[in-house]
Design goal:
It comes from Zingiber officinale (Ginger). The protein is of the alpha/beta class. It contains 16 helices and 10 strands.
């Protein structure tokens, strides 16, 4: 009866009883069978217009402001390393995080595409966000990728992410089961209510562009920090001219995005490998020479869908174990030889880790299907 009353706010107790009697001959009202003598009252939930209020904390001292997120220039989409049985290698992860922080990264995306959040259970996902906040949250902004093509899942994951302390959320538009433009706005409005949020537009993965009309509509929400935009620098400049904070989502375009199109910064994959050089690109003004030197590494990293190249490179550098969660597999040996040459040309000192770069053989890699 309660669920019936929640969806029919004006229904009285007698009306509800009559409705249920009409559906079956043997209905016995609860208050009759239990011999209630007090008058029945509506549950409080039935009187609340917006039943599903956001599960959020308004504790000021620990809350990150949207402006804190808007100012970030170098955000690394951090890699998630694994143990031989497929579980997280937290020691290697912590080492990667330290290398990001000492080289100037201001924020990290946890469990994004690069971090293989789509290969995690939500328990793993939220645990890794919480671990990152607990260990590094005082030194770097932790942005949890809690987006989903299911609004229900996105709400639940975002509530949990903020509850364990993440500073902001990253949200993608619903993929595969695509929705209308109005549906996209409704999806984003729902998750934006919970805290600082970066919207992520990457049509090559979602199959659907977030058009400027949608982004400008949701940008009115005070919790929207900005957009990670992968549709090129013309789109970035358009948003910048409209006063919308924008990060480049493409390493190969981020130099010009920052210094010609007005982007605030970059959410980078290659900064997992050369965080110091990516910091220079974002902070030290136009540097076409350095940008050109980085081009071969960037092209190599994206010759197959991300994070295949990055996973292979980090394993060759000896900073993670050569373990892949399927369906990802390492780049072939010829490509691994190319990476060794790229490291030699850029200088080993510019890359993370201290071990000599290796080619690695096929038998060195472990592919995990059950994890």
């Amino acid at each position: 009866m309660t669920s019936l009353l929640i969806t029919n706010h004006g229904l009285s107790s007698a009306d509800a009883t009559g409705t249920l009697r009409s559906r079956g001959r043997h209905f016995v009202p609860v208050f009759d069978s239990c011999r209630r003598i007090t008058r029945w009252r509506f549950p409080m939930a039935a009187l609340i217009t917006d039943f599903h209020l956001p599960m959020r904390s308004l504790e000021i001292k620990n809350r990150t402001s949207v402006d804190d997120i808007k100012s970030l220039r170098l955000i690394t989409a951090i890699k998630t390393p694994y143990l031989p049985d497929g579980r997280f290698d937290l020691e290697a992860y912590d080492s990667l995080m330290h290398m990001q922080i000492i080289n100037g990264a201001e924020g990290v995306i946890v469990g994004g595409t690069t971090g293989e959040g789509h290969l995690m259970s939500w328990d793993e996902h939220i645990m890794l966000i919480g671990h990152t906040v607990n260990c590094f949250g005082a030194s770097v902004k932790v942005i949890g990728n809690t987006g989903s093509n299911s609004t229900r899942e996105a709400i639940h994951a975002t509530e949990q992410g903020f509850a364990v302390g993440m500073h902001a959320a990253l949200h993608i538009n619903p993929y595969y089961g695509k929705t209308s433009m109005n549906g996209m706005v409704a999806h984003f409005d729902t998750v934006l209510s919970m805290g600082p949020t970066i919207i992520y537009n990457v049509p090559s993965r979602t199959g659907q562009d977030i058009p400027p009309s949608v982004l400008q509509t949701i940008s009115q929400n005070l919790n929207m920090a900005g957009v990670k935009e992968c549709m090129g620098n013309d789109r970035i400049k358009y948003y910048v001219d409209k006063g919308i904070i924008t990060w480049s989502g493409n390493d190969d375009e981020c130099h010009d995005a920052r210094w010609a199109s007005g982007a605030t910064g970059v959410i980078s994959v290659v900064s997992n490998l050369v965080p110091g050089l990516m910091h220079d690109i974002m902070f030290r003004g136009k540097n076409h020479s350095l940008n050109s030197k980085l081009t071969p590494l960037i092209k190599w990293s994206f010759q197959e869908p991300n994070p295949i190249g990055l996973n292979t490179a980090l394993a060759q550098l000896g900073v993670i174990r050569p373990i892949f969660r399927l369906p990802y597999v390492p780049l072939p040996r010829a490509k691994r030889l190319e990476f060794v040459k790229i490291v030699e040309e850029l200088g080993r000192k510019n890359f993370v880790g201290h071990r000599d770069v290796q080619v690695l053989e096929e038998d060195d890699f472990i592919l995990v299907g059950r994890y």
